[in-house]
Each structure stands twice: as structure tokens, then as C-alpha cells.
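Saturday, quiet lab. Running sequence design on the C-alpha cells for the scaffold JK sent over.
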């Protein structure tokens, strides 16, 4: 909040060496949609990312078994960046972002549907294999939507993501029962991811032609 007033963008009309006199970012329905979906992503991934090792340890006491939850998570994350880089060329940023939310939702719900070590490892693989993709595609989509004014949108999306990350563990604190059952927080996270995926699947309005032109000029 302290730096909000400094989030001003250059209007493109100033010459080199002159001070910036840009106007504030102009919000629209799609910008707000991206912010909310990015916040839902932060909320949805943080619960399994934080508690997967603990859930695995509750089911299997042998560290040689439950300890594999983090390596699987990390390996899947590393491989996902390669898949995402190639996938955006074929399906676009927003569709890939939506698909990653759906796959992540399946991973988040896996320990609820299969409360075994297998379900935990599926969660580690699916969540680990998708949580990097919204970060990549979300920031690229922000540039596509806002063009040269993308800095402000990226900043607010990042703040929404951080808010979701805080909200996830808080929900666990209040919702987990005396037996440490994470089913309800996981199902809430799964629902938010599915809803946000549906929101991302809505057609992008035509008003972004100028923003696309800005991005095209940057890339050229």
C-alpha cells in the first residue's frame, strides 16, 4: 500500500531525458479477472506445497518413503518449465494457464480421494508439475493484456498471489480438526482452482489490440 502511488506508467509520449508524466493504470474486467485468478492460484497451490511432506509422514513413518514427496515435487516442477515453454506456442498463455489450474486441482484433491501414500505422491507430482506454469503464463498474459502498462498489473497480481499464499495456511489453522484432517482446506483449494480455470477460459475481449501491438513492438 505504501508504494501504490508510485505505480504509474509511462504514457509513451515523453521524450528521452524528460520526467515521466504517465497516468495510472486503467483497470477493466479482464485485468481484475487475471488478478483474482492469480490469487486463487496462490491459495490453491500453497496448501499441498506446504503440507504434502507432513501428510506423507502421517501415512508412512519410513523417511526413505515419505521423503520422496519433495524430490518428486521438485523434479516435476523443473520438467514443467520445459513443457510450458513449448505448450504456449500451441495453445497460448491463457489456455495453458487454465489447464494448469485444472491439473493442479486434480493434484490438490488427490489426497482426499486417495488417502494413501499413492495419493500423496500423485499430489506432489501434479502440483509440482503445474505450479510454475501459472507464474510463467500469468506474467506473459499480463503483458499481453496491458502492453507497455503491464508493470502495475503484474505488481497487483503478485500481491494477490501473496495474499492467497497467506490465506491458505490461515484456512488450515481454522479448518483442520483435532485429528489433523486437511480434507476441507484441500477441497476449498480445489474448488477455487476449478472456478478460476473456468474464468480464464472466457474469451479475451477485443480491446487488447493496442496492448498486443505494444508487445509486438517490444518483441520486434
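Result came back. Writing it out in full:
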Amino acid at each position: 500500500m505504501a508504494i501504490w502511488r508510485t505505480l504509474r506508467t509511462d504514457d509513451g509520449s515523453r521524450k528521452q531525458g524528460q520526467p515521466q508524466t504517465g497516468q495510472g493504470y486503467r483497470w477493466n474486467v479482464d485485468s481484475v479477472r487475471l488478478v483474482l485468478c492469480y490469487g486463487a492460484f496462490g491459495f490453491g497451490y500453497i496448501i499441498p506445497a506446504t503440507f504434502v511432506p507432513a501428510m506423507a509422514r502421517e501415512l508412512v513413518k519410513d523417511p526413505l518413503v515419505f521423503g520422496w514427496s519433495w524430490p518428486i515435487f521438485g523434479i516435476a516442477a523443473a520438467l514443467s518449465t520445459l513443457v510450458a515453454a513449448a505448450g504456449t506456442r500451441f495453445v497460448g498463455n491463457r489456455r495453458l494457464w487454465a489447464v494448469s489450474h485444472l491439473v493442479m486441482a486434480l493434484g490438490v484433491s488427490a489426497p482426499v480421494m486417495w488417502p494413501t501414500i499413492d495419493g500423496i505422491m500423485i499430489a506432489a507430482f501434479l502440483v509440482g508439475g503445474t505450479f510454475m506454469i501459472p507464474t510463467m503464463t500469468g506474467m506473459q498474459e499480463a503483458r499481453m493484456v496491458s502492453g507497455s502498462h503491464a508493470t502495475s498489473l503484474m505488481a497487483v497480481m503478485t500481491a494477490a498471489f501473496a495474499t492467497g499464499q497467506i490465506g491458505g495456511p490461515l484456512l488450515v489453522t481454522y479448518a483442520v480438526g483435532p485429528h489433523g484432517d486437511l480434507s476441507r482446506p484441500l477441497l476449498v483449494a480445489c474448488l477455487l482452482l476449478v472456478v478460476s480455470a473456468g474464468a480464464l477460459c472466457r474469451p479475451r475481449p477485443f480491446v487488447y489490440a493496442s496492448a498486443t501491438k505494444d508487445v509486438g513492438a517490444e518483441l520486434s
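Notes for JK: The mean pLDDT is 80. Residues 55 and 120 are 7 Å apart (CA to CA). Ask whether to fix the surface positions before the next round.
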